[in-house]
Amino acid sequence: MAFHVPEEYYYTKDHEWAQVDENIVTVGITEFAQDQLGEVVYVDLPEEGQKVTQNQAFGVVESVKAVSDLYAPVSGTIIEVNSSLIDDPSSINDDPNNNGWLVRIEMDSEKELANLMRSPEYKKLTSDK
Amino acid sequence: MSLKTPLYQNHVNLGARIVEFAGWQMPIQYTSLKEEHNATRTHVGLFDVSHMGEIRVKGPKAVETLQWLTTNDVAKLEKGQAQYGLLPNDKGGLVDDLFIYCLDKNADYLVCVNASNKDKDFAWMTKNNKGADITDESSIWGQIAIQGPKAVELCDAIFTDIKISKMNRNEIQVGKFQGHTIMVATTGYTGETGCEVFIQAAGTPALWEALLAHPIKAVPVGLGARDTLRTEMKYSLYGHEIDDTTNPYEALLGWAIKPQAKDFMSKAQIVAAKENGLKRKLIGFKMAERGIPRQGYEIKNSAGQKIGVTTSGTHSVTLDEPIGIAYVETAFSTEGSEIYVDIRGKLIKAVVCKTPFVQK
Q1: ipTM exceeding 0.90?
Q2: Which of B92, B111, B144, B294 has its CA at 20 to 30 Å from residue B307's CA atom?
């Protein structure tokens, strides 16, 4: 199965994507990740204003079967949370690359982006599984 | 080592996601856990349960041996009847839970055990044998469970010499499917009507294909939905609700223990725990606040002191809300008791509720 992996996004090895707009980073989970999880039924997301650290867990998504930690692609401050997911997380499955976004982070340093993957590398990671 | 059931290629062809479970390559889901779960509750689901162990206990000492090894009253089983029972160790805990099928009274019994415990069970039964002829037949039999409101109609259409519409729950009949020996048992692990069919391994794919090809359109169901279905019924799963330290009365399995009828392994220790007053009980609970309980999450009181542990938890597909099963101190075990689940360090309120979670 081929997953849509937008070229302009950055990716973590834990299957989060990061869309960078100047110093604001929107974060979601990839199509591959939502397919592995199955139907998401619960999300636990941080509060606005909370600090997050690159590669550290900042929240949780759960399907019927599995619990999966969410890892921050960059360090910074949570400035917005997709609160529509609290009552209805289905867009994480239906539209993970867009409407299923989780949080927006005001990034501390764009140097951290160098630690992330671009789409060709991420595609290779998921095709090996 | 990783074993494949006779249906492995069928699962691959159906596009199933395969995972290793108890040493077997098993389908965890085909299309969607929710769809498979709902199909079983509202239509009919097909489950490959060929990984389960089959142990045959035969001979004039078969009943005496099974009476000693297991907790339920095997002597009461007539030919064609089935019974849930427990296999205690010598310390008052459980080696496994199992189903005993009487194929011929006082002579021939089929014991169906958990895949993950089969070798351990067989060794234990052989070691403590009272003179029966005990054989591990697990490699001989494939097994398909057919469960759901349409299961009876489907099975009656597929099987020529066995009509499950004419059988009561917990019975077994021997017949043929395309020349292969089958044993059709009206048992299951979902709470739905239907049966579990033991079939000679070589015939298993043909039966699977025949069931799928029927116009009723049965839905193949993976282990993911098998677990959510059994959790909704609060059926015990070895390694979750019961293990080698469990007192079965604490697990509320007293209905499968018959100390008045007979002596059995660890009887004194098992019964003593009950007579001395049970310290903990297995309860079902629902969440009063947001969160999904999972196995291993601690149960606490309002002061944050540990009073128990979650054995199974999931998001109930049928009820569309989180449900959990837990051992809690007896004082907190009555319906309506407020308890707290420690979810990632936060105390989330829950309430002890009536079970099964889904009333059938």
Answers
A1: no
A2: B92
